[in-house]
Amino acid sequence: MSMTRQEIQDLCVKSLEEKMVGTTDKGIANGNGFYQYFFTNFPDLRVYFKGAEKFTAEDVKKSERFDKQGQRILLACHLIANVFTNEEVFKAYVRETINRHRIYKMDPALWMAFFTVFTGYLESTGSLNDQQKAAWMALGKEFNAECQVHLKNSNLPYVH
């Protein structure tokens, strides 16, 4: 099933209604919960979190660092979902995200892999249906495509 940019945006935004950012306990827990899920289900990727390579979900839950990091990742997801219909702004945000992450020397394949992780998190909390998952993966495909173009144009490793 092919979806329009507007349909993708609407479905992604809807999937985030229960995953709002914010300073309330629930808002903080939403973001921290992503990293609890991440550290439990993708332990091999902990290497990208200097000083937290051996963290468990319980360590993450008690970590102010991941309270803040969780807010950043959720905010980023809200932003890309909400600007998806504005293709130039979406692409600019993708490029800016790459620029901020250059120092971590991430495997370029991880940009698409993120959306598998993120949709897995949403599914694990009951916040995602099949249509919304398809929308996130479609958004992720476009996100990744712009990532790879920008990585290539920046003379950085990219997925061919």
* Beta-strand percentage range: under 5%
Averaging pLDDT over every residue, what do you get?
Answer: 96
- The tally of helices reads 7
Low-confidence sequence ranges: none
Order of helices and strands: HHHHHHH
Please report the total strand number as a whole number: 0
What is the end-to-end distance? 26 Å
Top-tier CATH class? Mainly Alpha
Shape: globular
CATH architecture: Orthogonal Bundle
Helix content: 55-70%
CATH superfamily membership, which one?
A: Globins
Number of domains: 1
Secondary structure class reads mainly alpha
Reported for the largest beta sheet, the result is:
none
Give Rg in angstroms. 15 Å
Using the coordinates shown, work out and report the CATH topology.
Answer: Globin-like
Structure description:
The protein is mainly alpha-helical and 160 residues long. It has one domain: Orthogonal Bundle (Globin-like). 67% of the residues lie in helices and 0% in strands. Helix 6 (110-124) runs antiparallel to helix 7.
How would you summarize what this structure contains?
The chain is mainly α. The chain has helices at 5-15, 25-41, 57-61, 64-83, 87-101, 110-124, 130-153. α2 (25-41) crosses α6 (110-124).
